[in-house]
Each structure stands twice: as structure tokens, then as C-alpha cells.
Amino acid sequence: MNEMIKPKDYKTDIKPIWCPGCGDFATLSALTKTLAFMQLKKEQVSIISGIGCSSRLPAYIDSYGFHGVHGRALALASGLKAARPTQTVIAVGGDGDGFSIGGNHFMHACRRNMDITYIVMDNHVYGMTKGQPSPTTEPDWVSKLTPHGSGIRPFQPLAIALSSGAGFVARGFAGDPSGLAKLIFEGLRHQGFSFIQVLSPCPTFRPEQKLWKQQVQPWPFDTTDDPVLAASRIHADEGLTTGLIYQRELPVWQPGAEASDTLENIEQGFLV
Amino acid sequence: MRPTRNENPKSEHKNKVKHLKKKHSISVAITGAGGSGAVTTGLMLLDAMSRAGFYGYMSRSAGPQIRGGESAVMMRFASQPVFNTDDRFDVLLAMDWHKVERFADEIPLDSQSLIVCDENAGEIPAPLLQNGAVCRALPLSKTAKSIEGGRANMLGLGVLAILLGLTEQAMQQAVRATLGKKGDKVVADAIAGIERGMQFVVAGTQDLRLQPKSTAQKRWNISGNEACGLGALRGGVRFVAAYPITPASDILEWMAPNLEKLGGSLLQAEDELASINMIIGGSFGGVPSMTATSGPGLSLMVEGLGLAVTSETPVVVMNVMRGGPSTGIPTKSEQSDLNLALYGLHGDAPHLVLAPLNILDCVFTSEWSVSLSEQLQAVAIVLSDQSLGQSRLVTDPPDYAGFNTRRVVADASTQHYQRYQLTENAVSAMAIPGTPGTTYTADGLEHDERGTPSSMAADHQQQMAKRSRKLAAFDYGQHWAHVDGQGGIALITWGSSSAVCQEVAERLRDSGMQTRVVALRLLMPLNVQALQGLIKDCTSIVVVEQNMSGQLFHYLHAEQAIPARAVSYARPGPLPLRPGDIVEFIIAGVQADE
Ligand SMILES: Cc1ncc(C[n+]2csc(CCOP(=O)(O)OP(=O)(O)O)c2C)c(N)n1
Ligand code: SF4
Q: B557: part of which helix (H) or strand (E)?
């Protein structure tokens, strides 16, 4: 019999580029823990990302992976899942990558509902480009690029996921790695698109996020399958509560049937 | 400045041109308002002519209406294969005069031309008559009303059938093939209309009947877009992701059900940024993958193409060109995306650019592109265009090219697997997700042989050299160009202009001017040496293409593939290049040199 796979078996020898204390370390270890817990073989898993600090994650996990271009992780992951349905496909990235440049793909991936798990390490900032506001940044947060703050209200990724048709909407916190691992496990088990927003502090550009440790609270409700109820709860929330908020079984889109004809036959259609 | 010649040669040149013998063919146009059935009539005529043993080419043009606007079909028939439109038309069947002026440029008529129209249609628009075309007005709609289920277009088709010497039997078969799905009544009514139309006597016209070569041969009726799709399937493509765009959508519509039958799939993406990245994902997953688009979509895909180059993920992009830039002329043809395809990517990004030479060649070039892309783990951009994609051809069935399309794949548990290993031919084995022992992360960041991101100069130089050498050192064989004829005149061309140049060369040869045609199928990497060798003894070298700036001409100069004496014949779309115009241009040049 094969030996049990341990979390460290998924680690590569590449040293993360992340700053000390970066929340992304927690997602990395929660992921390897979950993969080991599920005893998923390395070759069964593909981790797909875009560009950003958080998008560097695939190189640090010994599985198949693709570090693509900024904002297109979900597109690449969808193509992979369509062509190779047997792979466990996990897309990862940051809030800029997923909600700004990749916002359109986010909505459509939710709607398409392929069996993909999407983990966004949300630090409310562009880390890699050294500190500009993202779609989830507070309007009064001052940066070099926005000396008076962006002046724009942040959007609510959970609400967008829900209204775009996702069947699994959750929020985790890097400061609670075992809670996060549980959510990832539920996400991987869920049939269809599962979206997990991870509050992932950036101590370098958002040092004030150290306070999240005290502010983050567990979601005070059980998971609902009622989208209206879920929406009202999400909108009433300040954005720092964690848990599996909404889960519902929805039709999963996965193309690919057995071949039923030959090309020679199809070509007969051109005969006059 | 690009050297050009006098575009209006003096009349003496014109005289000489007139004497050039032309290929024996008949050109027919059919126009009508929305609902007049002009396109259906054309499709039936094409079908009937192919049953009678002829070859044919049919292009189409439409007004801006989404549905039901005026439209025109332009057809050419011959006893030998035809791939392009002629200089002029022998017959115009006009169902009505609704906005027909819109098509006047596309349907040149002269004193030898015949216009067949309905006597109730009103006055003929002057532009159609200005060159002396003869008009025969017939009671088409009136007679149609007198027969059950009669339609004027079927009577018009009957008139064309008589003029072209088609039998009732061929017409009946064509009706069944085209309208069979609509039921027996529709078929019977159409046949009755056609047979009534065949009783009209059209007096005082030339004999428009061609000699059929053989009716025994099996012929195909195929559009360029279908042919591109077919070539891709032959090449092994089993995953397509794409966003709809004219004039490329018919590739997708043909492929969707057929991919499914072959166990593959098509994903309609949310945009082209998605579609290019989706096929990169599909190909990374081990399935040969492609997308189809047109200029605006190709523009959006450029960043993704760079990712495929750097990560060495094979993908094929069928770009069906239309008038540009911006939204341009979505429904009409132009060869103006060459610069984008050659130079659009940022960084040094070696990739393949190919172009099919005619509708039939779409099958071959598309299959070859997939084969090259898979073997070389490279991006292949295929430049078709609207005049190929949305035109139909009656042709001999395409041969089987039988390429070796397999990519080099890593075996399970390869020791010390390195995705981007430097190898003899610079192609390194690709591991397919699911394979144990060869896990790796593909990357658009520069990387070392293992795939680990690296900004070291040595890694960048090695990997760039690898990506460049795998394309430069590959033996592309004879397919890089179609070379035909020899002599002092050389026509260098690409893509859809190739068929026109073939005809130009035939006309020049018929008048004693030996001409060589070099039609480039593989535009990048360019076979500079071979091209130089083919034209070195030519005194007159003309680069022919359908765009305004002479994109191929400038590219060939930049590559030092052509000498300073070469000249450019570049005309923008959307009007097709006319063989007669090019013949005039060349003769003017030759005489100027004499
Ligand atoms: C097309 C393109 N535009 C801009 C960039 C520059 N860029 C790199 S990462 C990034 C933002 C990253 O922010 P986020 O996704 O939130 O990830 P983080 O670094 O915070 O983890 C930007 C704008 C790029 N790589 N590509
Ligand atoms: S900049 Fe912020 S997000 Fe990026 S690695 Fe450092 S702490 Fe993490």
C-alpha cells in the first residue's frame, strides 16, 4: 500500500518571496493540510493563478500548476477543467487580480459553475505593485497614487459571487488557519464553483490589518441555502465575519461526452 | 516611401491587356432585398452547377441590417477549379432594385454583361447601366403569382438555369439538397417555379454554357470557415474556447456539434481575454486547443499569446480578418492584421504565423498549423479572411495531409523532470496533469530549466534562445510556400491574394510573359534564403496583398528577403483584388522598364 501523504510532501524547495508575517503563508499551509487530509495525489491537483504576491502560491506547492497572467486565473482554470475534468482544479490569487482586472471572469466563473475552487487572498491592497487601492480597499485609505484616498466605496465580493450564481460562498481568515483549512475542504468537496474570500493581511502595506486578529468574528448564523437570506446577511455585515455563509447544489457545467462519430463520417457532409 | 507605379496606366497598356486571354469561366451575381431569397437562390445554383460537373466559387455581401437586409451573392463557375472572383460579371439576376447601388462596385458589368430583372421592379439604377450592360426585364413576379406557391426568385433561377445550360434534373436535385428539410410541398413549389422560369426565352444573349469536365467525380461544397474547422479537427484539436465575432463565428458554429461528436468540447467564453487563457488551460491539460476570432479579438488576446509563448503551451488562433482598424468593416475582407500577427506581442516572442492560400487550402494550412504548434509547443496564428471564410467553394475533396501532430510528452516518473530542459532541438517534454512523478508549474515569468521563476541573465538568455531556436531550426519542408512557374516576373503574395495572383500569372503566361508566383503559407518564421533564391533572377518583382500600407512588402524588406527593385501592389479592402487590375499594373511596369 502507498504511504499516507503528509502536508510537507506538497512543499516544493522554492522559498516564498512573501514578506515575514504575510497572510498568504496561512493559505499555503491550509491548502497543503487540506490536500493531505483528503489524500489527493500530487498529480491529481492543478493550482492556477494570475499575478500578484498571492498568485505566487502555485510554485510553492508540489502539484501541477500554472502561474499565468494578471487577472486570468479563472479563465485558464476553466479551460483546464473543461479539457481535463479528472483534475482537481484550484484557482488562487489576490483581490486586485480577481476583482479588478479579472472581475469579469469572476462573475462568469460563478455563473458557469464548473467544479473549481477559487481562493482569493484579500488584503484590500495591491501588494506586488507596492501599495495601491484595490476594489475592496476603504475609500479613505491614502496611498501615493491616491493621496486623498480613492473616494470609492469597496465592493462586496461575497455579494457579487452570490448574485452571479455561485453555489458556495465563504469567508476565511489567515489568522485562523484550521478554520480556513476546513473551509477549503468544504470547498473542494462541494460540487461546482466554490468561492472562498480569505482575509489575508499585508503587514507591509496595510500594517493596521494586524488588528484583524481582534476584529474578525465567526459568522453568527448557520450556513443557508437561501440566496435572499444570504444576501441580506452579507449586506448587513462589515466584512470581517468568517464562515460558510451560503451553500446550494446547482447544476454543474462540465462539457465532454464520449465520441459518437468519426471524422471520416463528418466529412461526408461536404459531399455534393 | 514605398515605391509604387503609376496606378492608371496609359491607354496603350489597356489595349494590350484586353488581348490577354482569360480563363474560361462564367460569373453570375444575384442581388435582392431581404426576403427576396437571393442567397438561397445562389446556394441552389452553386449546388446545381456542381452536380452538372463544374467547379465554383461563391462569395457574398450584405448590407448592415442584422436580419433581412439587402444581399448579394457573387459566383464564378468553370470546368477547372476556381478560387476567386473575376474582373467582371456575365450575368446579374436582380430580384429588385432595393439599395442595389450598394453592390455596384462589387459587381462590375460591361457591354458584354446581361442584367435579368423583374419587369415590375421599376427603373434600373443608372450605375448598373453605365458600361453598356444589356437588360432583359421579365414578368417574374407576375408569373410567380399565377402558380401555386410560386416565388419570383425560383423563376429567376430557372432563367439562369437555361442560360447556363443546366438540366431540369440537376435543378431538381439541387432543390432537394437545399430545401429538402423544409418538406415536400416547399420542394415541389420550388421545382414548379424553376421549371416555369426555364420556359422564358431570353433573346439576343451570348452563349453562357460551359463544357463540363466530368460529372462522375465526387465534389465537395465547403466554406473557408468550415475548411479551417475541418483542418483543425484533422490536426487533432479537441478543445475550443471562443467569443463570437464576425466573420469567424461560422468556424465555431460548424465545430461545436462536430467537436462534441468526436468527444471534444467548445466553451463560449465571456470575452477574448478569457478565450485565449482558456485554451492555454486546455492545452496545458494535454488537449490540442484552438480559438477563432477576428482583429478586435486578436487585439485582446495578445497578452495571452505572450503567456503561451513563454510557458511553451501550444495554441492555435484562427484569425479571420475583416476591414480594420477598430470595428472597421465587420462583414468584408481585408488582409490588414499581418502586422499585428507578426509584431503584436511584447518582448521577444517567437511564434508561428501562417495563412491559407485559398478555401481548399484552409483545410491543409489549418491542419499543418495545429501540427506545427503541437510539435513545437508554440503559438500559431493563422490569418484567414472574410473572403475565404464566408465564401463557398465547389472543389475536389482535399487530400489527407497526415501530419504527425503529437507533442513530446513526459513519461510518468521521469527522473529529475525539467519542463524547460535545454535539448538538442530545443523542444522539451511537456508533462500532462495527471501524470505521476512529473509535477511542475508552468510560468509566464522567465524561468530556469525546471520552471522556477528567475531573473538571472543567464536563464533569460538560455530560455529565449531555446524558444527562438526551436522554431528557427525546424525543417518546415516544402510547405512554407506554394511556388508555381518561372520567368522574369515574380509575384510574391500571401493568403487569399494567392488565388488572384495565380490567375494573373496564367493570363501573363498566355500572352508570353513568363511569371513565377510565390504564395507564402508560412509567414513567420520566414524562409528568407529560399525566397531570395526563387526571385534572384527576376527582373520584375511585385508584392501583392490586400491592405493599404503594404504590410507584407515592408516585412519582406525588413527581413532583406527582397531587393530594392521590388514594388508593392497593395490595395485596401473591401473590394476584392481584380486579376485584370494587377495584370495592367505589371504590364505597365514591364513596359516602363523596357
Ligand atoms: C496586465 C497587467 N497590468 C498590471 C500588472 C501589474 N500588477 C502586478 S500584480 C498587480 C496587483 C496585484 O494585486 P493583488 O491581486 O491584490 O495581489 P497581491 O499582490 O496583493 O497579493 C498589478 C497591478 C500586470 N502584471 N499585468
Ligand atoms: S507586500 Fe503584502 S501581500 Fe505582498 S508579500 Fe508582502 S505582506 Fe504579503
A: helix B551-558
Helix, strand, coil shares of chain B, percent, nearest 5, are 40, 20, 45
Q: Do B230 and A68 touch (CB under 8 A)?
A: no
Whether the complex's predicted ipTM surpasses the cut of 0.90 = yes
CA distances in angstroms from B270 to B76, B123, B278, listed in the order given: 39, 49, 10
What is the domain range of residue B53? Answer: 25-197
Residue B582 within any structural domain of the chain: yes
- At B23 the pLDDT is 55
Give residue for cell 432594385: B97
CATH architecture of A8-271: 3-Layer(aba) Sandwich (3.40)
- Does the residue B461 lie in any domain? no
Partner-chain residue, chosen from B51, B266, B442, that has the shortest CB–CB distance to A272: B51
Three-state DSSP state, B283: helix
Which of these, B582, B537, B499, lies nearest to B20 by C-alpha position?
Answer: B582
d(CA B60, CA B223): 11
| CATH number for position B519 | 3.40.50.920
For residue A53, the CA-to-ligand 2 centroid distance in Å is 6
> C-alpha cell of B126?
443608372
* Alpha carbon separation from A248 to A165, A166, A167, B462 (Å, rounded): 10, 8, 5, 50
Amino acid at B430: M
Least CB–CB distance from A78: residue in B51, B261, B281: B281
Within B344-437, residue ranges assigned H as helices are 359-376, 386-389
Between A and B, how many CB-CB pairs are < 8 A? Answer: 184
Which tens digit of pLDDT belongs to each residue from B412-461? 989 999 999 999 999 999 999 999 999 999 999 999 999 999 999 999 99
Residues pairing with B492 in the sheet: B518, B543
What's the predicted TM-score (pTM) here? 0.96
CB-CB contact of B389 with B228 (8 Å): yes
A127: CA distance to ligand 2 center in Å? 5
Contacts of B138 (CB under 8 A, 6+ apart): B116, B117, B118, B119, B155, B159, B200, B202
What are the grid coordinates assigned to B569, written together? 501592389
B188 and B228 in a single domain? The answer is no
pLDDT of residue B35: 86
Euclidean distance between CA atoms B314 and B428, whole angstroms: 12
pLDDT for B355-408, tens place per residue? Answer: 999 999 999 999 999 999 999 999 999 999 999 999 999 999 999 888 877 899
CA distance A193 to chain B (A): 16
Q: What is the total count of domains within chain B?
A: 3
User: Residue B84 — φ and ψ, nearest 5°?
Assistant: -150, 170
CA B105 and chain centroid, separation: 21
Contact check, Cβ <8 Å, B239/A44 = no
Grid cell, residue A66, equals 500554472
- How many angstroms separate the CA atoms of B110 and B90, rounded? 8
Structural domain includes residue B67: yes
- Which DSSP symbol is given to A96? I
Q: Which residues pair with B447 in a beta bridge?
A: B453
Residue B41 near residue B533 (C-beta atoms within 8 A): no
- Nearest C-alpha in A relative to B44: A272
Q: What pLDDT does residue B7 have? A: 42
Q: Is there a contact between B292 and B240 (Cβ–Cβ < 8 Å)?
A: yes
Q: Is residue B414 part of a domain?
A: no
Taking only the tens place, the pLDDT of each residue in B369-378 is 999 999 999 9
